């Protein structure tokens, strides 16, 4: 048996040889492979190596590195209803990636392979000019920091020119209110092609750097940091403590300002799933109010005169992911919350799933009267409830799924089922881009305002929005004067002509004259602790 010390040496040795191998690979990559191909290779080989090292060093660490959901995991939600939303939350799996990610990050950031020159400079291109301000519909999408692993979806692939807002998820919260990024490797450390290995100073890489560069090229896309989500706020209740005291809320708000200031975000999205009683509902409002106040105070310090001599300053955004289940939203002072927030992202999906006794529609517009069991929730009812509670319709963005929820061995919606299928990444959940599955036919229920696929040879029913359904929702958004469309989650979309994001944005930009919102993101972060964010752009 090796001693702990010799294990450490062994570990270092392996890491060094891994990086040397990668260095050689990179030269090759520059010739015959574009950037993501290169990154893919790099991640694949690192994953394999680190897997082995992890198993050797930490035999107790979860062996699963795939993003599969295990409904028997200790942190899996129990009972009905787990509505909404899982947010596709990898509630049983993300920790596995974390273990790996932390290990990978070390060789990449700290070991500079010898004899290697950076392949390009990390100096961002000249930013595009500000966009003309114009009110209009929003198009927002969540982008998960785990997307770069199994899904192999990288920040550079985000359809930035189609989005008014990107919600980068998820950050976690410590009990003293401090906000923390959750995956060092994905968030700040991974070096993409074009990132230098020999910069001087204190620089940030990973998604943070890529998103900053995307912002410079796509001035209408505001990037917000999304804090919370199912795992951190429901499984682990990490917002309960900081939200419960004035001191905790102040510390949390100050930390939100730090995240914006250091990483170059345009604002903060909060996904608390969910305040459990009206006391926590009021604490949530108080927390958002404190955030508003501290972000505004910080914005005051960034006042500058533009080329025409006009005084200008940023408006940092605040939004929330809002529940569609009445047992959750009735605990929130929605009218007051809406007054503090820039907008509300309604999680109008996950209406049905593995937690239900019968199969059902997961993102339907209406309640079915002929088959009520097939529609446990409906968007029409939720939207009306929010508006009745004092939320201006224009602040309400309609959440739409870029995935489907499956039920197997069923005769159709509203009927018993047995199993939920393997899913693309997690059990029971299929990416929109993989649907319909081979052998299945697509159907539309006018009564429920829902589409689904069904395979009559296997009895698999999958509830999801087809492109046509998404376009019907465009009409719904316009007719009800909602604020726009939001998606969970960007990696699930198609990239061809059938892309939901592309077509919905075109639909929202068309006919009724309102079009897509136009307002510039913010690029100057003079107080960032990172030299490359701080020095990238100034006014
Ligand atoms: C992980 O796998 C190794 C063998 O590959 C096994 O010895 C170890 O017990 C496993 N650990 C867990 C937590 O399952
Ligand atoms: C993966 O993890 C789950 C618990 O998180 C465990 O039940 C399952 O057996 C693991 N699978 C493998 C292949 O180790
Ligand atoms: C509200 O819910 C929280 C979290 O479950 C709990 O700690 C607190 O005691 C509850 N407060 C009231 C007044 O019920
Ligand atoms: C299943 O669907 C196919 C194609 O639509 C059809 O030809 C066949 O009759 C159906 N079978 C059953 C058992 O309904």
TrEMBL record:
Renumbered to this chain, the signal peptide range is 1-23
Q: Which domain of life is it from?
A: Eukaryota
Q: Where in the cell is it found?
A: Secreted
UniProt KW Signal keyword: yes
Q: Which GO terms describe its biological process?
A: chitin catabolic process; polysaccharide catabolic process
EC number, UniProt record: 3.2.1.14
Q: What keywords does the record list, in alphabetical order? A: Carbohydrate metabolism, Chitin degradation, Glycosidase, Hydrolase, Polysaccharide degradation, Secreted, Signal
Q: Does the keyword Cell membrane apply?
A: no
Q: Which GO terms describe its cellular component?
A: extracellular region
The protein's annotated catalytic reaction(s) are: Random endo-hydrolysis of N-acetyl-beta-D-glucosaminide (1->4)-beta-linkages in chitin and chitodextrins
| InterPro entries listed in its UniProt record | Chitinase_II/V-like_cat (IPR011583), Chitinase_insertion_sf (IPR029070), GH (IPR017853), Glyco_hydro18_cat (IPR001223), Glyco_hydro_18_chit_AS (IPR001579), Glycosyl_Hydrlase_18 (IPR050314)
A molecular function (GO) term? chitin binding
* PANTHER family cross-referenced by the UniProt entry: CHITINASE, ENDOCHITINASE B
Stated family: Belongs to the glycosyl hydrolase 18 family. Chitinase class V subfamily.
Q: Name the chain's protein.
A: chitinase
Task: Say which species the protein is native to.
Answer: Cucurbitaria berberidis CBS 394.84
């Amino acid at each position: 048996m090796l001693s702990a010390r010799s294990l450490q040496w062994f570990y270092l040795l392996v890491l060094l040889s891994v990086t040397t191998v990668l260095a050689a690979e990179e030269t090759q990559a520059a010739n015959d492979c574009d950037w993501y191909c290169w990154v893919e290779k790099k991640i694949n080989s690192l994953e394999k190596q680190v897997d082995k090292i992890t198993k050797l060093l930490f035999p107790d660490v979860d062996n699963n590195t795939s993003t599969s959901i295990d409904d028997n995991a200790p942190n899996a939600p129990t009972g009905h209803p787990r509505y909404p939303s899982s947010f596709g939350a990898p509630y049983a799996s993300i920790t596995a990636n974390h273990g790996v990610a932390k290990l990978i990050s070390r060789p990449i950031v700290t070991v500079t392979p010898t004899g290697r020159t950076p392949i390009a400079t990390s100096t961002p291109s000249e930013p595009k000019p500000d966009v003309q301000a114009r009110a209009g519909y929003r198009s927002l999408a969540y982008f998960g920091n785990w997307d770069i692993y199994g899904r192999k979806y990288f920040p550079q692939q985000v359809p930035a020119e189609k989005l008014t807002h990107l919600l980068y998820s998820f950050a976690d919260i410590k009990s003293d209110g401090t906000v923390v990024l959750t995956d060092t490797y994905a968030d700040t450390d991974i070096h993409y092609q074009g990132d230098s290995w020999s910069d001087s100073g204190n620089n940030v890489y990973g998604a943070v750097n890529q998103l900053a560069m995307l912002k410079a090229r796509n001035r209408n896309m505001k990037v917000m940091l999304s804090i919370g989500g199912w795992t951190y706020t429901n499984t682990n209740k990490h917002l309960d403590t900081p939200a419960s005291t004035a001191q905790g809320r102040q510390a949390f708000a100050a930390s939100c300002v730090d995240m914006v200031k250091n990483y170059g975000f345009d604002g903060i999205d909060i996904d608390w799933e969910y305040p459990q009683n009206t006391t926590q509902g009021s604490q949530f409002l108080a927390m958002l109010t404190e955030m508003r106040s501290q972000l505004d105070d910080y914005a005051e310090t960034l006042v500058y005169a533009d080329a025409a001599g006009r005084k200008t300053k940023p408006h940092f955004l605040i939004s929330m992911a809002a529940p569609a289940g009445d047992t959750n939203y009735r605990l929130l002072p929605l009218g007051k919350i809406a007054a503090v927030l820039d907008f509300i992202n309604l999680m109008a999906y996950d209406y049905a799933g593995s937690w239900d006794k019968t199969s059902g529609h997961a993102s339907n517009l209406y309640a079915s009267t002929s088959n009520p069991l097939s529609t446990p929730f409906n968007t029409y009812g939720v939207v009306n409830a929010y508006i009745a509670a004092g939320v201006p319709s224009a602040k309400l963005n309609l959440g739409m799924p870029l995935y489907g929820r499956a039920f197997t061995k069923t005769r159709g919606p509203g009927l018993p089922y047995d199993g939920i299928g393997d899913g693309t990444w997690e059990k029971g959940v299929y990416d929109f881009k993989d649907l319909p599955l081979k052998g299945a036919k697509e159907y539309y229920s006018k009564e429920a305002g829902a589409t689904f696929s069904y395979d009559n040879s296997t009895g698999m029913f999958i509830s999801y929005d087809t492109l046509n359904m998404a376009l019907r929702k465009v009409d719904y958004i316009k007719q009800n004067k909602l604020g726009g469309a939001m998606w969970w989650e960007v990696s699930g979309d198609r990239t061809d002509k059938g892309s939901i994001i592309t077509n919905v944005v075109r639909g929202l930009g068309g006919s009724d004259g309102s079009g897509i919102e136009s307002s510039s993101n913010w690029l100057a972060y003079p107080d960032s602790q990172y030299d490359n964010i701080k020095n990238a752009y100034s006014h």
